[in-house]
Specification:
Layout lengths: L19 H10 L5 H19 L3 H12 L3 E8 L2 E8 L2 H18 L5 H13 L3 H16 L9
Antiparallel strand pairs: 1-2
Helix pairs in contact: 1-2, 2-3, 2-5, 3-5, 4-5, 4-6
Length: 155
C-alpha cells in the first residue's frame, strides 16, 4: 500500500426502519444504480416475510442475517511450494459483508417469480437455519474445522 487507505463514506439510514444496515443490504441488491428498485424489492420482501410468518419481517430479516454470519473462514497461503487453507477469524465488517452477499446471491439463485419473492423465501429459510446462504456458512465453518491443523501458519 502506497497511499493512505480510502475513507469509508458514511451511509444514510433508510426511510422506513431508520437503519444503516438496511441501506447496506439495499446497496448489495442494487443493479446498475437502480436504488429505488432495490429499495422496493427489499420492502416488498420484508412485507411478504411478515405476511407469511406472522412476525415482524424486519426482525426475521435481522435474525436471518445473524444466522448467516460466519465466525471463521479459510484463507489460502502458499508455504514452501504448497498451498494451505488456513482458518482465520473474520473481521466484524467483513462478517456483515459476507452475510449480506450470501443472502442476496442465494436469493437470486432461488426459483420464484419476482426478486422480492425469492428474497423473502431466502430470508425465511435463513431465519430457520435452512437455505443456500445458511448452507454456505456451514460449509465455510466445516472447511475451517477440517483445516484446523494448519492454524499455526496464521497470516
Amino acid at each position: 500500500m502506497r497511499k493512505a487507505q480510502a475513507k469509508k463514506l458514511p451511509l444514510a439510514p433508510d426511510g422506513r426502519f431508520n437503519d444503516k444496515l438496511v441501506t447496506r443490504f439495499v446497496n448489495n441488491i442494487m443493479w446498475q444504480g437502480k436504488k429505488s428498485t432495490a429499495i422496493t424489492i427489499f420492502y416488498d420482501a420484508v412485507d411478504k416475510v411478515s405476511k407469511i410468518t406472522g412476525e415482524d419481517g424486519y426482525e426475521v430479516w435481522k435474525k436471518a442475517l445473524s444466522n448467516v454470519t460466519p465466525a471463521v473462514e479459510v484463507r489460502s497461503r502458499r508455504i514452501g511450494g504448497a498451498t494451505f487453507q488456513i482458518p482465520s477469524e473474520v473481521r466484524a465488517d467483513r462478517k456483515i459483508s459476507l452475510s449480506i452477499k450470501w443472502l442476496v446471491r442465494y436469493s437470486r439463485e432461488r426459483n420464484g417469480k419476482t426478486m422480492a419473492d425469492k428474497l423473502a423465501n431466502e430470508i425465511i429459510a435463513a431465519s430457520k437455519g435452512e437455505g443456500g446462504a445458511f448452507k454456505k456458512k456451514e460449509d465455510t465453518h466445516r472447511m475451517a474445522e477440517a483445516n484446523k491443523a494448519f492454524a499455526h501458519f496464521k497470516i
